[in-house]
Amino acid sequence: MYRGQLTALLGHNGAGKSTTFSILTGVGSASSGTAYIEDYDVRTALPQIRKHLGLCPQYNALFGTLTVLEHLEFFCKLKGRRWNDQEAYELLEKLKIEGKANAYAGTLSGGQKRKLSLAIALIGGSEVVMLDEPTSGMDPGARHDTWALIQGEKVSNY
Description:
By secondary structure, the protein is mainly α. The chain has helices at about 15-25, 45-50, 70-80, 85-95, 110-120, 140-155; strands at about 35, 40, 55, 130. It has one domain (about 15-155): Rossmann fold (3-Layer(aba) Sandwich). Helices cover about 45% and strands about 10% of the residues. It has a two-stranded antiparallel sheet with strand order 1-2. Strands 3-4 form a two-stranded parallel ribbon. Strand 1 and strand 2 (about 40) form a beta hairpin. The two termini are about 15 Å apart. The model has no long low-confidence stretch (mean pLDDT about 90).
């Protein structure tokens, strides 16, 4: 993989795509070998990797009693990044959920939850973003908008 490049993992169910994401993010461990992200070994340098990494997992990992903005602030700070209200609002606007900024995650529709999960992956200027089925549960229009946003983020951050 190269900086500024979009790379996709394709395969049928059970092919190991989500397992690969788990290994690359330190959630799971490999039985052998290693991988590097931003020149850091995933076996030994997870704190450094997580500062650069944004992950949108296959299943939403949200807290029902936190608002959309609280999620973004929490995950931004968890990455060790500086919180920026303006960045958060711009991201929500691009995802067309700015009207939900103060809504609790538990009240969001399935598509809105996926958008929040994507926003969490992107917040804080993530240099490496891993997206596991980011448009699952979205209507066709929202899927198109989301892929356009992903392409735009790649171009603007490279």
